[in-house]
Give the backbone structure.
Amino acid sequence: MAVETVERPRAATSTSTPKPRKHALGLGARMKKNWQLYAMLALPLIWLGIFAYWPMYGAIIAFKDYNVIDGILGSRWVGLKHFERFVESYQFWRLIKNTLVLHGYELLVTFPLPILLALGLNLARRRWYRRSVQMITYAPHFISTVVVVGLIVVLVDPNTGVLNQFLGLLGIGPIEVLSNPDWFRHLYVWSAAWQTMGFSAIIYLAALTAVSPEQHEAAIVDGASRLRRVWHVDLPAIRPVAVILLILNIGAIMSVGFEKVLLLQNPLNLQTSEVIDTYVYKLGFVSQIPQFSYAAAIGLFRSLVGLVLLVVANTLARRFAKSSLW
Amino acid sequence: MTTTPAAPERESDDYLPAAVKETRADRIVLICNYTALGLFSLAVLYPLVYVLSAAFSEPRNVQSGEVWLWPVGLSLESFRSIFDYDGIVRGFGNSVVYAIGGALLATALTLLAAYPLSRRDLPGKGLILGLFLFTMMFNGGLIPNYLVVDRTGLLDTRWAMILPTAMAVWNVIITRTYFQTTIPEELAESARVDGCSDIGFFWRVVLPLSKPIIAVNLLFYAVAQWNSWFNALIYLTSEHLFPLQLVLRQILVQSNVDPSQVRDVAELLRMKELQEQLKFSLIVIATIPPLLVYPFVQKHFVKGAMVGSLQG
């Protein structure tokens, strides 16, 4: 995925500037010649217009006092009122902190682990072993969020769950995990690691298959140990992919995993489990009087911060790691 | 994934030429690696095995903690109780409809978008591609999305489950890359010279050559649709439309057994007893369909994902 995105701007410029290609026909004639291709694009573009760009336009209700009767256009313009209200609200810093800590922690765990797994798999050359490990570690990727949370619920159940029965054997009393704010983040992050690690390793494994055996053979002749070769041959091979995935992850740091947060959330762990997206959801859909404009403003704030983070991460990566999204 | 032309896998443990002897440190690293991978796989596998065993065990043996690895007192009771709970069966049916319908529609849209964008000679391609890519970086947000679904009259209809998620830009990119790498541009040019239209070429040449990527798309969208629940939560209010995941959420996560869903009172009491048990069998039932497609995914999806990612 990553490398593709890197290529994109180049591809885009090469088509928009006719320099490298000679066109016998003018633009109008070329467009006419390709009319069937545009016709194929019509339905997808209509879809994109309705379900991607219309909501972007609709996001202007963040600057208005939206009400159903007046609609998006007719509602009164109030400027930054909702944004100011959010920044000044007592919720603001708690939401920001919870969001960043949760996803920062997640990144810290789920970014390096697939790399380690891929390096380990690459080192293990016995095919049946490799295959079995891959089969097993991919599987959780296909399990739904609801089921993963359901699994957590049955495993940590204070009376019947395996966790507490095991702790019971050690003489440690049953612990309430789900309702404990201190446990929420660990549950969230480590279940994410359990679920995504195997599948995330695929892309690194793909990059590792591109390493030529000669490089390893040369390193062996030079007397490099196995670990040294992992460090000096394998790791550099996956570095560009890793950098790009890191950029993408930082861009998504404000938004990912909201559905699981919502599922794991309960009134007792709100202290750590209330993040920006769950708050938006509650304002819009749970509270007695839906506050669409205020909720949309918070959502927009979150999207914009995410976009800024993406740009910053990309700039840093281009400067220091010499690979970037654009 | 398991076999790639670039680096044929070897049964031996390394690239070691026969003349070079493996050092002791290397041997230890290797053993540690195999052990770590093994332990890790077991850790991933354990919750799944436990749930499977618990689902097939006698309920009271699960409650008393006798089950920790293998089923104790084989019983299918918890599976039987699934059929007494109307919402589950109906949810299962709804989910099948959403998964199949969603996958067909989404795959069609994805192919229609990806093919023209894979053509180098399409004027304005950069701009159109940009329109697609921008939506990956920025979106209107939860509330505006909801308002659009509301405004288009899709709210509380089956379409609300299928249409808003009908295309994943990510898949468009992967599919486009597939076309670019497998369908030579010259083929399209010569077909044109022979008087074949673009649509005809797409239908008669491109699609038959693209079975793997079509399979990948169908599977991807079907699994995503099967596993989704949040859109159902905000877009649907009629219970008879609920997909399985939403019913699961009520039972698994919120621990609610809705009395109105159970046929009689004796049943309800039995259900209360079986509730814990029901959870295990439900997890098994809900997980089986995605895992059934998993072998195909092994073969196609992983390859497709790799083609998409690395040959951009």
